[in-house]
Specification:
2 domains; Rossmann fold; binds magnesium ion; 8-stranded mixed β-sheet; 11 helices; binds adenosine-5'-triphosphate; 4-stranded antiparallel β-sheet
Length: 332
Amino acid sequence: MSSPILEARAVTRSFRLPRNGLFGAKPVLHAVREVTIEVAEGETLGIVGESGSGKTTLAHMLMGLDKPTSGAVHFRGNPIGGLSKSGLRELRGSMQIIFQDPNASLDPRLKVGAIITEPLRSLHVPGDHQTRLLELMDAVGLSRTAVERYPHEFSGGQRQRIAIARALAPHPKVLIADEPVSALDVSVRAKTLNLLQDLKEQFDLTVVMISHDLSVMHHVCDRVAVMYAGRMMEVGPVEELYDCPEHPYTQTLLDAIPRLHGGKLVPDDLADTPPQTIGEALGCSFADRCTLVETRCREQAPSLTPLESNPSRAAACHVGLAATRSSGGNKT
Ligand SMILES: Nc1ncnc2c1ncn2[C@@H]1O[C@H](COP(=O)(O)OP(=O)(O)OP(=O)(O)O)[C@@H](O)[C@H]1O
Ligand SMILES: [Mg+2]
């Protein structure tokens, strides 16, 4: 990979929770643990994982909206912790996020035009803001007359277009889209994903796309990173990771993509055991749900290691699905 535009180096984010009784230490929740990930300029990297796996927490640290408890985030090779006020403003212009909840992120008291141009004002972006606004309305496929209306007058899909236009306003280099389609009707999901693809080309963006659903990632991502209980489980080029997952958790996610069984759409139930992130767990966090579990898996957490057969891929698993395939124990 050429030098990454954005990278997290061993970032951890822990939250101290209120104690249960009067005495004892406050429990610590590890939302993200020792995550290292690089984002190459121009690529679309998907981050996937069940609810609570730490995707949003990681995204906020990548954006500089939240500080890691340990580890560091680098943008174009420079650490973003400790940036001056003007340095932070410049960073905000270079990296923008579409927040997970499109309704909560649009101020209902402001007209669409004011919402979209707000980052231009707050980040002191030079140039004619009205011209930029009209350009953005065209780019996201909203009527120019919409600038005088309020967010509640629009459908979910159109509100997401408003949020996208606002994120693109200051000419960012990196766009982080946190579950950009999960709140939308199925009928507008594909349209919104296509729009994001087109905008990526048009504005020369690097995209980090977050979703709990691997089927969303398939057609839009170059590489996919799989998170579970705050840890990175597997990273690799999308086709290879889908065709031949190495981590049993990736296989579980793939198995959960709704499929047609006898003409009926049957989604498998994923969240029977939610990821455990409180306190210090010794071994692999997926051990309790894993079909390949061995004694060593409960004793030591595996680190994310490049695959011998293909260094563009990496997995955090002591056993690995490739080994079971070659020994005839293929479960796929
Ligand atoms: N401010 C906070 N204080 C305490 N715990 C938090 C805080 N923010 C996040 N968490 C916890 O950290 C874990 C990871 O949360 P996060 O929102 O990053 O997950 P997620 O993968 O984005 O989930 P979802 O798919 O539901 O959006 C969860 O257990 C969450 O409850
Ligand atoms: Mg989230």
